[in-house]
């Protein structure tokens, strides 16, 4: 066993890296354990065949569905986690997302904290993650005490045309909040070259606002912070009382090692954090660590997501960086209408389409890519106890998931198709995301005030283990209908502030180190 640490952080995604950034100024001895390795910068980063068909950045693990079908999850084990390959659309939850909402299929529950509890931390997260945007454009945006730290990104000509056409039809499109290091008032000094390989690709020029570039590299500049890669955490070991984690057990290059810490922060992603807790069962926690409620691993949510290839046969779309338009006119639709988010995604290319449809004729894929504009639809899936993460008797990971709340999703797509038809798009091909699309995973260790129906308290500390915190998407009571990344980061800053007080870190020291 190594020398004890003050803090161990497990995982380097949006939660873990942001927490490391918040706590690094403390001078406390911090160990960060990451099961993946640093992404190797290579031309493979931009190869659609390798990224989309061979999925070289996704794990080789095979998980089970509830029907015992094996599948390969779209899970990236890298320094920076899934943010290394995300599309960097970073929106705040709406204020209404924190309140109860009823659907035909069930209830999206209220949060035990309010939007106002996260608002100042959203400001800081937007700054850290290089989020560009414009307040006042999004018709459903929540109140903000500060403007975006970075101005909105401009639309390329074809997108500007469609942006104007949608406005003429009565919609209120807005500049999508996007986290990249692109500074249009200083193009020579911008790491981002505004290419067509952002969404789904790692960034070859390190210009994406991912967790590593936004937070982790700054945390590691402090001599008291250590990162250990290739360290897969297997379980957490408690003291005899079961009230405190004493040691973290990990496999490092095939060798089991244990690390001792005063405080443990779990941020391995909603699925893997639940697995760590379940694997940590002991005499005091027979159903899994911090699981007397039986909710660890339950209420898994990942959104209802669909992608659309919308084709105007008479106009080409030579856009390179396409992710600059968002539409939330239907996010809070009254009278039971669709509630969801629409945005552009990365530009489809012949190479991307070929990777996904290898048997299709090349000339057809080329024509489709040249004429397409590519959209993403997100609506809520609801917390259902039967949608859950478990471990089989043989040690396999099982992700049991039945889609729900599909009617609002179908309605959102149907309504938007009508708008696209009016502006010249005649072929619209839509594909829903399958079970292996786990990028928006949330809900497996829900936050609440009552230990009987939650795993974490409102400080993101487990009710039953006094020195264990979970700061990835596990804590979400509901999924909302926007990417959870910015909320995970903002909440990590909130919890980091709580821990700073408990660790005796001065506010002035923290602000100076984070500047």
Describe the structure.
The strands form six sheets. Strands 1, 2, 11, 12, 13, 14 and 22 form a seven-stranded mixed beta sheet that branches. With 515 residues, this protein is α+β, with helices and mostly antiparallel strands. The model has no long low-confidence stretch (mean pLDDT 95). The chain is 24% helix and 20% strand. Strand 13 (245-252) and strand 14 form a beta hairpin.
Q: Residue-averaged pLDDT, rounded?
A: 95
Given the C-alpha coordinates, what overall shape results? Answer: globular
> In this structure, how is the largest beta sheet organized?
7 strands, mixed
What structural class is derived from the secondary structure elements? alpha+beta
* DSSP strand count: 22
End-to-end separation = 36 Å
- Helix proportion: 10-25%
State the helix count: 11
Return Rg in Å. Answer: 22 Å
Which spans of ≥5 residues are poorly predicted at pLDDT below 50? none
Query: Quaternary arrangement of the chains shown?
Result: single chain
Strand content: 15-25%
Topology, pairings included?
Elements: E1 5-10, H1 14-23, E2 30-33, H2 48-53, E3 63-64, E4 70-71, E5 101-103, E6 106-108, H3 115-128, E7 131-133, E8 150-151, H4 157-168, E9 174-175, E10 178-179, H5 211-219, E11 225-228, E12 231-238, E13 245-252, E14 255-266, H6 270-279, E15 304-311, E16 325-327, E17 340-344, H7 350-356, H8 362-371, E18 372-379, E19 388-391, E20 397-400, H9 406-422, E21 427-432, E22 468-470, H10 485-503, H11 507-514
Parallel strand pairs: 1-2, 1-14, 2-11, 7-8, 14-22
Antiparallel strand pairs: 3-4, 5-6, 7-10, 9-16, 12-13, 13-14, 15-18, 15-21, 16-17, 17-18, 19-20
Helix pairs in contact: 1-5, 1-10, 3-10, 7-8
């Amino acid at each position: 066993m190594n020398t004890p640490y003050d803090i161990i952080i497990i995982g380097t995604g949006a939660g873990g890296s942001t927490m490391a950034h918040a706590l690094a100024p403390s001078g406390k001895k911090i160990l960060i354990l990451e099961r993946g390795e640093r992404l190797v910068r290579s031309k493979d980063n931009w190869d659609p065949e390798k990224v989309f068909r061979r999925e070289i950045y996704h794990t080789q693990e095979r998980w089970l569905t509830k029907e015992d079908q094996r599948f390969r999850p779209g899970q990236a084990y890298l320094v920076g986690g899934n943010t290394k390959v995300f599309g960097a659309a970073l929106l705040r939850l709406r204020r209404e997302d924190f309140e109860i909402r009823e659907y035909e299929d069930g209830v999206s529950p209220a949060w035990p904290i309010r939007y106002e509890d996260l608002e100042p931390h959203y400001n800081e997260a937007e700054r850290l993650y290089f989020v560009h945007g414009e307040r006042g454009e999004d018709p459903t945006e929540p109140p903000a005490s500060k403007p975006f730290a970075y101005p909105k990104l401009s639309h390329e000509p074809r997108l500007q045309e469609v942006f104007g056409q949608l406005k003429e039809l009565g919609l209120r499109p807005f500049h999508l909040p996007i986290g990249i290091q692109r500074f249009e008032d200083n193009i020579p000094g911008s790491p981002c070259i505004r290419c067509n390989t952002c969404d789904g690709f790692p960034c070859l020029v390190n210009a994406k606002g991912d967790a590593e570039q936004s937070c982790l590299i700054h945390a590691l500049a402090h001599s008291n912070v250590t990162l250990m890669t290739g360290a897969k955490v297997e379980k957490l070991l408690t003291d005899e009382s079961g009230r405190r984690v004493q040691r973290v057990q990990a496999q490092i290059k095939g060798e089991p090692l244990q690390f001792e810490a005063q405080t443990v922060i779990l941020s391995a992603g909603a699925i893997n954090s639940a697995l760590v807790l379940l694997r940590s069962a002991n005499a005091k926690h027979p159903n899994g660590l911090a699981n007397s409620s039986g909710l660890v691993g339950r209420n898994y949510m990942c959104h209802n997501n669909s992608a659309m290839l919308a084709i105007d046969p008479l106009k080409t779309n030579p856009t390179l960086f396409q992710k600059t338009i968002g539409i939330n006119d239907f996010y809070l639709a009254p009278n039971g209408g669709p509630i969801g988010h629409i945005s552009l995604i990365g530009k489809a290319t012949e190479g991307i389409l070929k990777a996904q449809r290898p048997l299709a004729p090349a000339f057809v894929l080329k024509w489709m890519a040249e004429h397409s504009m590519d959209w993403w639809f997100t609506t809520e899936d609801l917390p259902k106890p039967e949608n859950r993460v478990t471990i089989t008797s043989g040690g396999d990971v099982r992700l049991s998931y039945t889609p729900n709340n599909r009617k609002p999703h179908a309605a959102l797509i149907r309504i938007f198709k009508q708008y696209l038809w009016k502006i010249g798009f005649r072929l619209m091909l839509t594909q829903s995301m399958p079970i292996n699309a786990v990028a928006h995973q949330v809900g497996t260790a829900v936050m609440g005030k009552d230990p009987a129906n939650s795993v974490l308290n409102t400080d993101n500390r487990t009710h039953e283990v006094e020195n264990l915190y979970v700061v990835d998407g596990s804590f979400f009571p509901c999924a909302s209908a926007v990417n959870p990344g910015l909320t995970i980061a903002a909440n990590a800053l909130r919890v980091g502030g709580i821990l700073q007080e408990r660790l005796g870190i001065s506010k002035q020291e923290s602000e100076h180190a984070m500047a």
